[in-house]
Specification:
Layout (H helix, E strand, L loop, with lengths): L10 H5 L7 E3 L2 H10 L3 E6 L4 H11 L2 H10 L1 E6 L4 H15 L7 E5 L6 E5 L13 H14 L1 H16 L12 H15 L16 H17 L6 H14 L13 E2 L7 E2 L2 E2 H17 L3 H17 L8 E4 L2 E2 L2 E2 L7 H7 L2 H11 L19 H8 L3 H19 L7 E6 H18 L2 H18 E2 L2 E6 L3 E4 L2 H17 L3 H17 L33 H16 L2 H20 L5 H11 L3 E7 L1 H12 L6 E7 L22 E6 L2 E2 L6 H10 L1
Parallel strand pairs: 1-3, 2-3, 16-17
Antiparallel strand pairs: 2-4, 4-5, 6-7, 8-9, 9-12, 10-11, 12-14, 13-14, 14-15, 16-18, 18-19
Length: 686
């Protein structure tokens, strides 16, 4: 027996490198071994910050007796779902088809060694029978017996599974619903799913769902401008974001949001912190703060951005993937407090303020301890304690700093220190947007440094790689290209860099040649040259992250208009045509694609600013103030080398000393606009 994970770079795989299980990474050698031995494949998919992955590892994979059964009857393959989201998407889908239940992690699937089609699966299995689940060893023995004695039945089932999987990429023409009806239908469905009491959508467990909240905010804004005002939509977004920022899903001492809340009131989280959640939430909070200031939301943005820079940043600029839910083998231990310990650390006045705000005088909310959760608004606490605001703020800040310093002495949750390109795209966009809204150039600089890292380290010989840990690994997926393109366009709107503009064009061209489906429209999740698997997804549904097709449809349309490239615009349009029937089937589950559709339904503004950098930066700030999702503003100095073809190439010396602007709608642009007042009037009247 030889565990083959020791040479891997994934922190998750390395967590299992000392197991007595004969683990293989997913590789041609592992698949060949299964075919030659005739043993079924036990495929186990998880990630480093996953609590139940740790539980199953401790109970079963570290157990010598269980490992002997696994090694005798199966070829055992471990997969980090963050490195191989292609495998995770395929086998999560297969799990749902086989079990008619939602999946999750750890995902445990049993595959035919010849076809790689799964014939049984589940998620977490305990070491002893409980939760209405068999013991893992009993399950293994039963599966081995069924595979040996009922191959014909399993082969027939496998054919049915493959037929069902193959049907997923088949689409039909959309129905008779027009575009505005489709957008309205999504808004109606989201209103029905909304939790009017506590914000968010659905009940427990409750997830942030930033793509969904973005749809509500965009719908409200577009309707206020061109349709019937939607007065409830902003309240839906504000209530949710406020309750999240008050809730236990937010780290009130160190900043950053956890993966989800286990209850509907956002009080007790699952304590893992993921880069992709926090990147998306920074973007969303920044959009809301561009509409109106809010002290609570501003604080959450500032603390979250600083957490990213303090704890999640590689020395060369990119961002790490995640913090574990567990420390010292216990979920949430790093974040929990005992009342007596808080009292010991704080002065009497500090404790009074802290106790009142965070409910330390109320019953403990997590296994006899307190996970910090604001029970009331800060203004109400100040009034109840009859304190001056400045005094109250000082007491609260001093208390938080003392507790934060004490917390740094604890054993920290594990850090997953691999660089994921897709997730970095989300974080870069969020940092730059937040930096622009709150006037924090450090965050913008950090975002641009991360982009430089991705361009120099993860972009190699015309291929964007999905992961980096010392060196790039795994050719990129659609999400990697889409999210980095989105980040690049966000960065270019802050300040034009030829390197970023050129990188965006290179990435878009690669998407067109390696991911785009020229026959049907839309993009595959994997490149044309990618390893052949049992299914090649074309994702459209919103998940914890927006689907690649939703983001790519947005960025190709914007990039196409910016550079006058109709090939990009046509690909964006054809993606929406291809996905139309799927969107109509469940509009509220396709919010990212609906954002792309909205940009084709309503007039969009492309504003190009030319002139000295300082002057056009001031003009940019003036026309981007507020929330205008239909407006893209690019300040391109005369010193730039890579500029859109439709802009004048010859500029007089006199012109170079003063700014000017072009406002484009559709494929036509205005004459040069020479004053800021005229520019404001033009964009407001379009």
């Amino acid at each position: 027996m030889a565990n083959r994970l020791q040479e891997e770079t994934s922190p998750y795989l390395l967590q299992h490198a000392d197991n007595p299980v004969d683990w293989h990474p997913w590789s041609p050698a592992a698949l060949q071994s299964a075919r030659e031995s005739g043993k079924p494949i036990l495929l186990s998919i998880g990630y480093s910050a996953c609590h139940w992955c740790h539980v199953m590892a401790h109970e079963s994979f570290e157990n010598e007796a269980t490992a002997r059964v696994m090694n005798e009857h199966f070829v055992n393959v471990k997969v980090d779902r963050e490195e191989r989201p292609d495998l995770d998407k395929i086998y999560q889908t297969a799990h749902q088809l086989l079990t008619h239940q939602t999946g999750g992690w750890p995902l445990t699937m049993f595959l035919d060694p010849d076809t790689l089609v799964p014939f049984f699966g589940g998620t977490y299995f305990p070491n002893a029978a409980r939760f209405q689940l068999p013991s893992f060893v009993d399950l293994l023995l039963r599966i081995a017996d069924v595979f040996a004695t009922k191959r014909d039945e399993l082969e027939e089932q496998g054919k049915q599974v493959m037929e069902a999987i193959a049907s997923l990429n088949r689409t039909t023409q959309g129905g008779s619903m027009d575009d505005t009806e489709l957008l309205a239908k999504a808004r109606q469905q989201l209103g029905e799913q909304y939790d009017t009491a506590d914000g968010g959508f659905g009940s427990a467990p409750k997830f942030p769902m930033p793509t969904t909240l973005d749809r509500v905010l965009r719908h409200r804004t577009y309707q206020d401008r061109w349709g019937k005002p939607d007065r409830e939509a902003l309240d839906m977004v504000m209530t949710t974001l406020t309750n999240m920022a008050r809730g236990g899903i937010y780290d009130h001492l160190g900043g950053g949001f956890c993966r989800y809340a286990t209850d509907r009131k956002w009080m007790v989280p699952h304590f893992e912190k993921m880069l992709y959640d926090n990147g998306q939430l920074l973007s969303l909070y920044a959009d809301v703060l561009s509409i109106a200031p809010d002290e609570l939301l501003t604080g959450a943005v500032r603390e979250t951005a600083e957490w990213l820079l303090r704890e999640m940043r590689h020395p060369d600029g990119a961002f790490f993937a995640a913090l574990d839910a567990d420390s010292e083998g216990e979920e949430g231990k790093f974040y929990l407090w005992q009342r007596r310990h808080i009292k010991q650390l704080l002065s009497e006045d500090e404790y009074l303020v802290f106790e009142t705000l965070y409910g330390i005088d109320k019953p403990a909310n997590f296994e006899g301890k307190w996970n910090l959760h604001r029970y009331d608004s800060w203004r109400s606490v100040i009034q109840r304690l009859s304190l001056e605001p400045d005094t109250a703020n000082r007491l609260l800040n001093d208390a938080k700093q003392k507790l934060f310093r004490e917390r740094t002495t604890r054993v920290r949750p594990g850090l997953d220190d691999k660089i994921l390109t897709s997730w970095n795209g989300l974080a870069i966009k969020g940092l730059i947007k937040a930096g622009l809204v709150l006037g924090e150039p450090r965050w913008i600089d950090a975002g641009n440094q991360a982009l430089d890292f991705i361009r120099t380290q993860a972009w190699q010989d015309g291929t964007l790689y999905a992961t980096w840990k010392g060196s790039p690994k795994h050719p990129g997926y659609l999400d990697d290209y889409a999210n980095i393109l989105d980040a690049l366009l966000t960065s270019l709107q802050n300040g034009w860099r030829d390197d970023n503009a050129n990188f965006a064009i290179e990435l878009a061209d690669k998407v067109m040649t390696s991911f785009y489906d020229t026959d049907n429209g839309g993009c595959f999740f994997t490149a044309h040259e990618h390893e052949a698997l049992i299914h090649r997804p074309k994702p459209t549904m919103d998940d914890a992250q927006p689907p690649g097709n939703g983001i790519i449809a947005q960025v190709l349309n914007r990039l196409g208009h910016l550079f006058g490239n109709t090939r990009y615009i046509d690909a964006s349009t054809n993606t929406l045509v291809w996905a139309r029937a799927l969107i109509e089937r469940y509009p509220s589950g396709h919010c990212a694609l609906l954002a792309a559709l909205e940009e084709q339904v309503y007039p969009q503004q492309l504003v190009i600013l030319r002139g000295p950098e300082a002057d056009i930066a001031a003009w940019r700030a003036a026309v981007t103030k507020g929330y205008h999702p239909w407006r893209q503003v690019y300040p391109i100095p005369y010193a730039a080398r890579l500029i859109p073809d439709y802009l004048p190439r010859l500029v007089s010396a006199d012109q170079q000393t003063r700014p000017s602007a072009y406002v484009c709608s559709g494929l036509s642009c205005s004459l040069p606009i020479e004053t800021l007042d005229e520019l404001k009037t033009t964009v407001d009247n379009l």
